[in-house]
Every structure is written in structure tokens, then in C-alpha cells.
């Protein structure tokens, strides 16, 4: 184990030439980032998750109910042991051949079976109230951390001159403000990483998982090798658009369509300008070129910049989605349809977004069979739970 740790913390990988870990040990005169500082983020991530549960229950939920957001979920599928077994053990989207087999086995119409599977899939979707509470929690955190970042950074020299990120590197002392900023951001993204498995399921689950991993790795990398100054710039820049994204989703769930439209336009402008213009010109320029000139490259420098470039590719992908939404909306003469406000830079696209958006015609059963569990009555349902409660003018 000692050999593995020695290999992992190899100074020639992490630090510039002729710099050792001993040079960055804390002294009475200066404090430097230490890898063990980051251990605090794990229990803090759990605390943040618990705070989120309390916040959603006692603050976000009353706000949602005050805005007339209903807690009702989709209509439940009628109990049927055979279909439930197929749904849980085999497939949630049966093909035509399986549908025909189930139709013969249950003596049901194929369309009725399709509707049952649609209703059953919709049962696993959260209600609009749950979505609102999730967005309100994220909005609250992003607003707080972005405000903190701006207030802190406006007093620093590297906000106004990015070359200050590299002067006297890596012997730049760690301040209490930077330490707090880093630990809080890392804790929050750790909580997002794990809560991703309990939150609303999105089509871009893998992309978001990679995003959280890349973010956590970037925060860790920049802290351990004391690139904290440029790290604070990256974090603050990314939090700006996230604030608008979450409040736009909240407006959509509350059916405030005009306010939602305005916020979506603001979000799109801030996101695209900050991540396709400011980020490469301001951040990538200093990490790739200014740092090369002042400090010079070393192994972890390459890894750090590779992760930043990966983040830029994700920015481009999400910007493409935003522009696509805007173009489709303009062609229809409105900002978005019922599922699109949540197609933000985190692409709140649901795994079942292809479900029908209107009530289907009433099913017609082939035969009545009282011996089959759950077949004594066919229920009609809208078979659908939108990503956010759509406004009346969105149909």
C-alpha cells in the first residue's frame, strides 16, 4: 500500500520541476492546500444531502403548494401479476411480438397492453411538485455559491489579471475564503453525483455522470497542486448560468409561461456567451498559454488542461441542444413546448419523453375475463407526465 501511495503521489507528476511536497507543507508563515483537506468533503456531502431533504420538505414544498403546483402523480396502472413480471424482469418496452403473445395469454387487446405499459412507466416518474422542489434546492445553492464567489473574487487580483494565477506558483498561500469555496463546491458535486441515482432520470444520465466526475476531478486536481486561483474562476463562471437554468424550470413548473420564456432567453444568452466565448478566451487561454509561459508544462498540467478541454466539448454539446430548442421554438412562434424548458445545459430530458402527450382513445378489450388479475376493467389515462406541467398555450 505504501508503494502504491508513493507512486500515486509522485512529485514529478503533480508538481513543477524542482518542487517537492516538503516545499508545500504548512508553516507558521503560510498555509498551502493539503490533499487530506479534501476528506472533509465526504461527510459534508452527506450533510448537504440531508439539508436538501429538509429544505425540500419544509421550504420548497410549501412554496410549490402556494403556487398551486399539485402533488398528484400519474394514474397508476391496474394490478396485473403477469404484466408486472414482464415489466420488472424482462422489458419496460415490449416489442410487437411480445405484445401479441401477451394479448393471447391475457385475452387483452394489444392497445390496452400498450397503454398498461405506458401507465406503468409513468408511475416511476416524479410529480411536478417533486421536480419543482429539486429545482428550488439547486437554485438556492447556486445562487448562494455564485453570490459568494463574486463577492470573494472581486477583491482578488487574478479576477482582473489572469496572469496573477501563475506568478509565484506553486508557492501561493491558501486563504480561508478559497478553502471554504473549494470544500463547499466539492461537497455539493459529490452530493449531486450520488443523488443522481435517486433524482429524475434523464436521457443524458451518462453525460451528466461524466460531467460530475470531471468537475470533481478538476476541483481535486486544482486544489492538490495549488491551481486554486484559476479554479475559483472556473467555478464562478459555471455557476452563473446554472442559477438562471433552475429558476426557469421553476417558472415552467408553476405555469408562469411568459416569465419562463424570458428566463430561458436570459439563460441561453448567459450560457452560450460564458461557455463558448468567455471560457475559452479567459480560462483556457490562461491555463494553456499564460501558464506555459510563466510556469511551464508538467504531467499533471497536461491532465488538468485535458479535463478543461473535455469540459469545453460538453459545453458545445449543451449549447447545441439550447440552440436546437430555440430554433424549433422560433419555428413554432413560441419559446418552447411542454418538454423543452428542462432541456437546459443539464438537459432535463426524460427517459420517457417520447410518451404520448394527450389522452388516448378508450381501449376496446377483445373479451371480458374475470379470472385474469386486473382485467375486469380497462382504464383510460393520459399516459403521460410531462417534464414540467405545461401551460395551456403550449398545446
From TrEMBL:
Q: Where in the cell is it found?
A: Endoplasmic reticulum membrane; Nucleus
Give all residue intervals belonging to the Homeobox domain.
83-127
According to the record, the segments passing through the membrane are 135-153, 178-198, 205-224, 260-282, 302-323
Q: Please give an example of a GO cellular component term from this record.
A: nucleus
| Membrane topology field | Multi-pass membrane protein
Pathway(s) served: Lipid metabolism; sphingolipid metabolism; Sphingolipid metabolism
* Molecular function terms, GO-annotated: DNA binding; sphingosine N-acyltransferase activity
- What top-level branch of life does the organism fall under? Eukaryota
Question: Where's DNA bound on this chain?
Answer: 85-128
* Compositional bias annotation for Polar residues: 367-379
User: What sequence ranges are listed for the domain TLC?
Assistant: 130-331
Would the keyword Endoplasmic reticulum be found if you checked this record's keyword annotation?
yes
SUPFAM superfamilies found in the cross-reference section: Homeodomain-like
* Cited SMART domains: TLC (SM00724)
Q: Return the annotated region ranges for Disordered.
A: 341-395
Query: Sorted alphabetically, which keywords does the UniProt record give?
Result: DNA-binding, Endoplasmic reticulum, Homeobox, Lipid biosynthesis, Lipid metabolism, Membrane, Nucleus, Transferase, Transmembrane, Transmembrane helix
InterPro entries per the record? HD, Homeodomain-like_sf, Lag1/Lac1-like, TLC-dom
Q: Which GO terms describe its biological process?
A: ceramide biosynthetic process
- The entry's protein name is Ceramide synthase 6
UniProt source species: Hucho hucho
Amino acid at each position: 500500500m505504501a508503494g502504491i501511495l508513493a507512486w500515486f503521489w509522485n512529485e514529478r507528476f503533480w508538481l513543477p520541476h524542482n518542487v517537492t511536497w516538503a516545499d508545500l507543507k504548512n508553516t507558521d508563515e503560510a498555509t498551502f492546500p493539503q490533499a487530506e483537506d479534501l476528506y472533509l468533503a465526504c461527510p459534508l456531502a452527506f450533510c448537504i444531502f440531508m439539508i436538501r431533504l429538509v429544505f425540500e420538505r419544509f421550504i420548497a414544498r410549501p412554496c410549490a403548494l402556494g403556487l398551486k403546483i399539485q402533488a398528484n402523480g400519474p394514474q397508476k396502472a391496474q394490478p396485473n401479476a403477469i404484466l408486472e413480471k414482464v415489466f420488472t424482469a424482462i422489458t419496460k418496452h415490449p416489442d410487437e411480438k411480445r405484445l401479441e403473445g401477451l394479448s393471447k395469454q391475457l385475452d387483452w387487446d394489444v392497445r390496452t397492453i400498450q397503454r398498461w405499459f405506458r401507465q406503468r412507466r409513468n408511475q416511476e416518474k416524479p410529480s411536478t411538485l417533486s421536480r419543482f422542489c429539486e429545482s428550488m434546492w439547486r437554485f438556492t445553492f447556486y445562487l448562494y455559491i455564485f453570490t459568494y464567489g463574486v463577492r470573494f473574487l472581486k477583491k482578488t487580483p487574478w479576477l482582473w489579471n489572469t496572469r496573477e494565477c501563475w506568478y509565484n506558483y506553486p508557492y501561493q498561500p491558501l486563504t480561508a475564503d478559497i478553502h471554504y469555496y473549494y470544500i463547499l463546491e466539492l461537497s455539493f458535486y459529490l452530493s449531486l453525483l450520488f443523488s443522481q441515482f435517486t433524482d429524475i432520470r434523464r436521457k443524458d444520465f451518462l453525460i451528466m455522470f461524466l460531467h460530475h466526475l470531471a468537475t470533481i476531478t478538476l476541483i481535486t486536481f486544482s486544489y492538490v497542486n495549488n491551481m486554486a486561483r484559476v479554479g475559483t474562476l472556473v467555478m464562478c463562471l459555471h455557476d452563473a448560468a446554472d442559477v438562471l437554468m433552475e429558476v426557469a424550470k421553476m417558472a415552467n413548473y408553476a405555469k408562469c409561461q411568459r416569465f419562463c420564456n424570458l428566463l430561458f432567453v436570459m439563460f441561453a444568452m448567459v450560457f452560450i456567451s460564458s461557455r463558448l466565448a468567455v471560457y475559452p478566451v479567459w480560462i483556457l487561454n490562461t491555463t494553456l498559454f499564460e501558464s506555459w509561459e510563466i510556469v511551464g508544462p508538467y504531467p499533471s498540467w497536461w491532465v488538468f488542461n485535458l479535463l478543461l478541454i473535455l469540459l469545453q466539448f460538453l459545453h458545445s454539446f449543451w449549447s447545441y441542444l439550447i440552440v436546437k430548442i430555440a430554433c424549433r421554438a422560433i419555428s413554432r412562434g413560441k419559446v418552447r413546448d411542454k418538454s423543452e424548458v428542462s432541456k437546459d445545459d443539464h438537459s432535463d430530458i426524460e427517459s420517457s419523453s417520447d410518451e404520448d402527450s394527450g389522452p388516448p382513445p378508450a381501449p376496446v378489450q377483445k373479451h371480458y375475463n374475470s379470472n385474469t388479475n386486473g382485467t375486469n376493467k380497462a382504464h383510460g389515462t393520459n399516459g403521460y407526465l410531462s417534464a414540467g406541467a405545461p401551460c395551456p398555450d403550449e398545446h
